[in-house]
Write a structure and sequence with these properties.
By secondary structure, the chain is mainly α. The chain has helices at residues 4-49, 52-83, 87-120, 127-153, 156-164, 166-186, 191-223. The chain starts with a helix and ends in a 22-residue tail after the last helix. 35% of the residues are buried.
Length: 245
């Protein structure tokens, strides 16, 4: 004969344990997001200020981000195997895996910027271009912060808003790309420094793309529907310098 009290306690324990496992994913995503934001901020600061110590910190922090992504992936697989979640819970778990992967890539972009600090040390960097790079980073960080807010609140509206503003980053990146090319053409001595800045600008633009990826994942987690595949893009660097017939 089944003891109803024991049965109820077991069910309550199971539900509590399951909730704790889901909350583990939420906490780790939040921690990854905070670290990724800080890495982007510090990588750009280290570039602007030629701070090699700060750039080395960013490079080291990338290992922490990598480990966090691994933990989330392993935990998510374990939850799926053990709990066999359905509907919204399954979307949340799969979404956590996807968001962790995007945040890990954001960390990689920050690390790439930090690695350029030593390469450009001692080179003259045009202040106007550096300010443009800082502005681009500010836009990308705003996107990243807002999409993490959308994740924590499961706000489909905020996620969609972040996605719709991706073209702003593309437009600034294209403008900065043109300016960098102009500096290189005006004086060949600028080529090396500007090339490094060009790679940094591209990494920042890619951070915006990963924020957009996260926004699409959050929208799916919140609604169960996918956003249209056509996302706003305004990156025209492929056509810069190409004359039309």
């Amino acid at each position: 004969m089944i003891d109803e009290n024991n049965s109820g306690q077991l069910a309550a324990h199971t539900v509590t344990s399951y909730d704790e496992e889901l909350q583990f994913l939420v906490r780790r995503i939040a921690e990854m997001g905070g670290l990724a934001e800080r890495m982007v901020e510090e990588s750009v600061a280290s570039l602007v200020n030629s701070d090699t110590a700060l750039s080395q910190k960013v490079i080291s922090d990338d290992l922490i981000l990598d480990e966090a992504e691994r933990q989330i992936g392993e935990k998510a697989v374990l939850i799926i195997a053990k709990r066999q979640p359905m509907a919204s819970d399954l979307r949340d778990i799969i979404g956590s895996i996807r968001i962790a992967a995007d945040l890990e890539r954001v960390g990689d972009m920050a690390k790439n910027i930090a690695k350029r600090v030593i390469a450009v040390q001692g080179m003259g960097q045009p202040k106007k271009l550096v300010r443009g790079l800082e502005h681009l980073a500010e836009l990308a960080l705003t996107q990243l912060k807002e999409v993490l807010d959308a994740y924590s609140s499961r706000s489909a509206g905020l996620a969609n808003s972040v996605r719709d503003r991706d073209d702003e980053i593309d437009a600034i990146y294209t403008s900065l790309f043109r300016e960098l090319l102009t500096y290189m053409m005006e004086d060949p001595r600028n080529i090396t420094a500007c090339t490094h800045l060009l790679f940094c600008a591209k990494n920042i633009e890619r951070i915006g793309d990963h924020a957009t990826n996260i926004a699409e994942t959050v929208y799916y987690m919140a609604t169960g529907s996918q956003l249209s595949s056509e996302r706003p893009k305004d990156d025209e660097t492929a056509t810069v310098g190409v004359e039309e017939d």
